[in-house]
Amino acid sequence: MDTYGNIDARGKYPPEVMVWGHRLREGQHWMEYLLEFLSVLAGYGYQFGRTDEYRVPARLGLKRFVFYDEYEKTQDPRDQKAVDLLRQELEKHVTANGHQPKAVLEQLRALLRSFSVIEANRSWFAKSLFPVHEELLLWEALRKGATKNVYQAQVDSLTSAQLDAGIEFLPRNFFARGGELYYLMISAGTEQSPEQRQRIGDRLRELLVERNQMLGRFAQMVNATWQSLINEEQVVKTEPGWLPDPDCSLYRQCAEDVEHLLDNRLDALESLELLAHLIGFHIIIYIYHRAHPNHNDHIHHTGQCLNQCRPEILIDIPGDEDSRVIRQISASQLLRHEQWQSDRIRAWFRSVATVMAQHTTAAVLVDALVDQAEQFVGGVRKTARQAFQTHIAQFHQQALQLKNNTDAIIEHYSQMMYAVTEHNFRDHFLPIHRRLGRAIGLIAPQRGPQPRFVLGDTLLKTLTMTVVKPAEQAISFGEFLTRLYQRYGIIVGPGEARESGLLSRAGVNEGVFARNRERLLERLKFAGLATIYSDATAMVHRA
User: Fold this and answer.
1) Label partner for 20 (CA 20 to 30 A): which of 200, 225, 228, 431?
2) Please, which domain of life does this record's source organism belong to (predicted)?
3) Residue 530 · residue 344 · CB < 8 Å
4) For residues 457 and 92, which has the higher predicted lDDT (pLDDT)?
């Protein structure tokens, strides 16, 4: 398998990383994919195609100024002193125009806090702001032990720099590399199109640097003030992970989508909000694409993978009684995509064993597979290692009894390896598509039974901006549905249901899909994205 980025040839990666790249993880908030992606891009000077070290300002002073207050869950006297020192210094630089500098600072802080996008139940150092300007891009930080241990020592004698002691920037708990992976996807997708690569980078630079400059200047001043107090430029230095099959046609399609979306007349905040939805959608499509049963390493560079690995996403448009039928089919499709992900892990273990079998005899294969499994144990936590070794011993005993039955040995190996890695896979990878889907409006309900595929208003607008090209401005409703299916596997009406084979498999009257289609048209019209003319012609247009 070819890769793009920085893969450690001696690294012990879990199977989901070997299938989907380094890495995607359930704990990453949907907005953090956008924030991490933009941070990486800004760290490379808005250039795609880089895989060397990138540099990102930590902006710890700004983050603490905005988020640390009396309601902080992890109170720490070091942070309180740091905030007090920073505020005292900032008051010297604030033009109050007759007002109290403290009051002016608090108003400015409240303004910045209004752009908060990630708070939940997190400590101040793990919260984030919406990137209305590059200076508001906040990298993840972690003060180890902050939630378990209260700092007891005196802080009066500590220097400003010592107040930040113990804060780390590279654990990657929340910035789990999903944004890095997306950066690599767009880089790979524009490898043969330097002009497109330049246009995307320039447009994102415009949105993050040339807009909202007053906010950017104030944020920069806050952070620069803290850096002058500690006499240190706090910069995060790291490099991206890696992406599998860099010639995959899906990456080129994703890059085209991003270019189409960003070529708009919307304001900067809405453009970035739509981009956040598009990134989440692309990650889900990417997961489904590589999990598809037709996946193999030989079809990606030819473009065949777009047809052969197209997902099947039936959209439930709520309405009359027969929408219940659509809902049931859509829910079963979602479960099938989950099953495909599990099957893909089993298939990966099977492929590893098959390659080994091609270079050895059946008698030697068992010992070779045991060695391979035991090497994998090195990357497993100690608590799981004993159970893992028990499984390996059982496999060894069973495989020896199979003697020369290579196929059976390989199957036993793949099942054994899946069994011992299943818990980690189900906890940290399998929930990703549901969490992202619910956040961006692709999966509903937020909680409750029978989750299925839907199209929220913002996601619908996002996809309209990607499938209707900027030069076209408008296309027929029928063409709109065709493109949604061909690009993403989205099924709404009878035409797409027929082309995908779903109509014959489901055994449902065609009228059920036709009414689903009409409900979507009404949604588009209500959202201002479609016009229905007197001759019943319907045109879908960009926002």
Assistant:
1) 200
2) Bacteria
3) no
4) 457
Task: Identify the helix (H) or strand (E) that includes residue 185.
Answer: helix 178-189
CB 277 within 8 A of CB 261: no
What's the CA gap between 100 and 98, in Å, rounded? 7
**Which residue type, as a one-letter code, is found at position 146?**
A
* pTM listed for this prediction: 0.96
* The dihedral sign for the CA sequence 137, 18, 16, 244: positive
Of 82, 137, 142, 94, nearest to 115 by C-alpha is 137
3 state SS for 489-531: CEECCHHHHHHHCHHHHHCCCHHHHHHHHHHHHHHHHHCCCEE
pLDDT at 441: 98
Q: Which two tokens stand for residue 293?
A: 């049963």
- pLDDT at position 397 over 90: no
CA 184, distance to chain mean position in Å, is 12
SS3 per-residue string spanning 322-373: CHHHHHHHHHHHHHHHHHHHHHHHHHHHHHHHHHHHCCCCHHHHHHHHHHHH
Tens digits of per-residue pLDDT, 49-91?
999 999 999 999 999 999 999 888 888 999 999 999 999 999 9
3-state class (DSSP) for residue 539: strand
Helix ranges restricted to H, 190-237: 194-205, 213-230
- Going 250 to 348 to 27 to 491, the CA torsion angle's sign is positive
